[in-house]
């Protein structure tokens, strides 16, 4: 018996008004895990109306009390970590170890941001007038539309929903159609933690559901993570409707390997960064920029590691790498591998779907290393979002930095070297939102700002305290207790002690 998963609107679990549904499937086997409400514009309108109604009360709940609900949610996440991780592996495909990390990231974020309930600092500052107080406070924005991808089914929703709530906003959450059940579980946890009806609403569905949310006039802010292509469309629509928008989009992350690098560390770190989550991270390492002196060794090490990765179901403890999330994603990766070959790059390992031992039932693709990649090739410029990485030869640190920066994205980058001078030069000149030294390109922690430059985003950051800037607006307050009209900039009193 396949279970049904519903929308959550105004504190009630309910089907889509049309009765339409879609399936959530295990990408490793094709097994149907659940049947989910497919929401139309009318369901989105119901959810937005519920969020709008709940907003005036929720914004008046003192922030430390709002945070209490979130602390309880964090405790529930801790208690249910294993169950959630297993579900995530089944629904999204990544191996259990990584799913546990995803749940942990949601736990970390929830504790970290719940702590802001007792801070949410503004500041006081002197007025230019006597007997006049001046300070500023954060205010919630209103109804927030949260649109999330499938690659981090709990972590990324937590990055958005938890700060939105602690700041006093109400939320309509539209998760990716590949991971609806994980989203339902997250909302159930927040419900159980004591969130009042209407404060968080869930609408399951696909592109049309997200588009209706972006379109809705009562949604004040859209927080979106996904592809640059879709993100730019969201931004255009938001601009036309006067909405605030925060975008986390693509990456084309690079690691520089200098000739003095610790190559065992490079092999470990880059195998993890390129093939972890089957390369389906916006932080995945898809370019390895190698000094000619170590090029051969790095190629051999990566090829050897890639060959040894065991593909299979993510719940199997023997498995190192799970499937891609969907047929569409598999086709995308296949297309890019074809493009790379046509461009003249050489496939050192992988380059094809994995079949045999039942793997053909899922969307498995072999970990792939391209060599002889020119930085101008499409495979070196465009986000692939799969287990594919490029070896690019660079003759100097200067050239390496130029290649790192020579793409339209700017999320994460790294350098492997034992030379502090080279490391610090790279840190200084790389134009990305995140830089690592002697570490791969993945593994950001929740209490530092997360996001990138150029087409990776629109200037906002998630994580860190910086996320509060997305989900609040400033109110400046002036209190004049002089008992007379004091005109700023005009009634300037001379400075005198007499
Ligand atoms: C993503 O790929 O969309 O830094 C997020 C990392 C994770 C988050 C990745 N903590 O790889």
Write up what this structure looks like.
- It is a single chain.
- The mean pLDDT is 98.
- This protein has a 7-stranded mixed beta sheet with strand order 15-16-17-14-13-19-20, sandwiched between helices. The chain has a 5-stranded parallel beta sheet with strand order 10-9-8-11-12, sandwiched between helices. A 3-stranded mixed beta sheet has the order 1-5-4, with helices on one face.
- The protein has 498 residues and is an alpha/beta fold.
- The chain folds into 2 domains: 4-249 and 457-477, Aldehyde Dehydrogenase, Chain A, domain 1, CATH 3.40.605.10; 253-437, Aldehyde Dehydrogenase, Chain A, domain 2.
- It is globular.
- It has helices at 41-58, 63-79, 81-92, 96-114, 155-166, 180-192, 207-215, 228-241, 263-275, 292-308, 327-342, 378-381, 397-405, 420-429, 467-471, and strands spanning 3-5, 7-9, 12-14, 21-25, 32-37, 123-126, 132-140, 143-147, 170-174, 200-202, 221-225, 244-248, 253-257, 285-290, 346-349, 368-371, 388-393, 409-410, 412-416, 434-437, 453-454, 472-480.
- The longest helix is centred in the first third of the chain and has 19 residues, at 96-114.
- 38% of the residues lie in helices and 21% in strands.
- Helix 3 (81-92) packs across helix 4 (96-114).
- Bound molecules: 2-aminohexanedioic acid (UN1).
- 2-aminohexanedioic acid (UN1) binds at residues 105, 151-152, 281-283, 442-444.
- Most strands sheet: 7 strands, mixed
Mean pLDDT: 98
Ends: how far apart? 87 Å
The tally of helices reads: 15
Helical amount: 25-40%
- Rough outline: globular
- CATH architectural name of the largest domain: 3-Layer(aba) Sandwich
What's the CATH topology name of the largest domain? Aldehyde Dehydrogenase, Chain A, domain 1
Strand tally: 22
Structural Rg: 25 Å
> In what range is the share of β-strand residues?
15-25%
């Amino acid at each position: 018996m396949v279970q049904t998963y519903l929308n959550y609107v105004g504190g009630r679990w309910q089907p889509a008004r049309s009765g339409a549904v879609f399936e959530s499937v295990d990408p490793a086997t094709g097994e149907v895990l659940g049947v989910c409400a497919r929401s139309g514009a009318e369901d989105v309108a119901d959810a937005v109306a519920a969020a709008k109604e709940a907003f005036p009360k929720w914004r008046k709940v003192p922030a430390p009390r709002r945070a209490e609900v979130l602390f309880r949610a964090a405790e529930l996440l801790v208690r249910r970590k294993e169950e959630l991780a297993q579900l995530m592996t089944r629904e999204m495909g990544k191996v259990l170890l990584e799913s546990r990390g995803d749940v942990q990231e949601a736990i970390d974020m929830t504790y970290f941001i719940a702590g802001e309930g007792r801070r949410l600092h503004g500041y006081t500052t002197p007025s230019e007038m006597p007997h006049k107080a001046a300070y500023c406070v954060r205010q919630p924005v209103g109804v927030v539309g949260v649109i999330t991808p499938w690659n981090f089914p709990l972590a990324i929703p937590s990055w958005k929903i938890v700060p939105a709530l602690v700041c006093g906003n109400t939320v309509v959450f539209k998760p990716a159609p590949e991971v609806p059940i994980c989203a339902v579980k997250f909302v159930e946890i927040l419900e159980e933690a004591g969130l009042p009806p209407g404060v968080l609403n869930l609408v399951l569905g696909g592109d049309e559901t997200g588009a209706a949310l972006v379109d809705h006039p009562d949604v004040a802010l859209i927080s979106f993570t996904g592809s640059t292509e879709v993100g730019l469309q969201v931004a255009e629509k938001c601009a036309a409707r006067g909405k605030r928008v925060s975008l986390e989009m693509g990456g084309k992350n690079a690691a520089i390997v200098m000739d003095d690098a610790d190559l065992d560390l490079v092999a470990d770190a880059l195998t993890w960064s390129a093939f972890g989550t089957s390369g389906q991270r916006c932080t995945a390492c898809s370019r390895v920029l190698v000094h000619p002196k170590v090029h051969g060794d790095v190629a051999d090490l990566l090829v050897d590691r890639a060959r040894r990765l065991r593909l299979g179901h993510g719940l199997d403890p023997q498995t190192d790498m799970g499937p891609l999330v969907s047929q569409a994603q598999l086709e995308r990766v296949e297309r890019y591998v074809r493009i790379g070959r046509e461009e003249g790059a050489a496939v050192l390992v992988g380059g094809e779907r994995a079949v045999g031992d039942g793997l053909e039932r899922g969307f498995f693709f072999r970990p792939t290393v391209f060599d002889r990649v020119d930085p101008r090739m499409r495979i070196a410029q465009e986000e692939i979002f799969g287990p594919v990485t490029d070896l690019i030869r660079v003759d100097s640190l200067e050239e390496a930095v130029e290649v790192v920066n020579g793409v339209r994205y700017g999320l994460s980058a790294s350098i492997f070297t034992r030379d502090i001078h080279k490391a610090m030069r790279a840190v200084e000149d790389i134009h990305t939102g995140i830089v690592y030294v002697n570490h791969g390109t993945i593994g950001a922690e929740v209490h530092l700002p997360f996001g990138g430059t150029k087409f990776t985003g629109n200037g906002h950051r998630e994580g860190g305290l910086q996320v509060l800037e997305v989900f609040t607006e400033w109110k400046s307050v002036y209190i004049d207790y002089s008992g007379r009209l004091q005109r700023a900039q005009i009634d300037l009193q001379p400075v005198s002690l007499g």
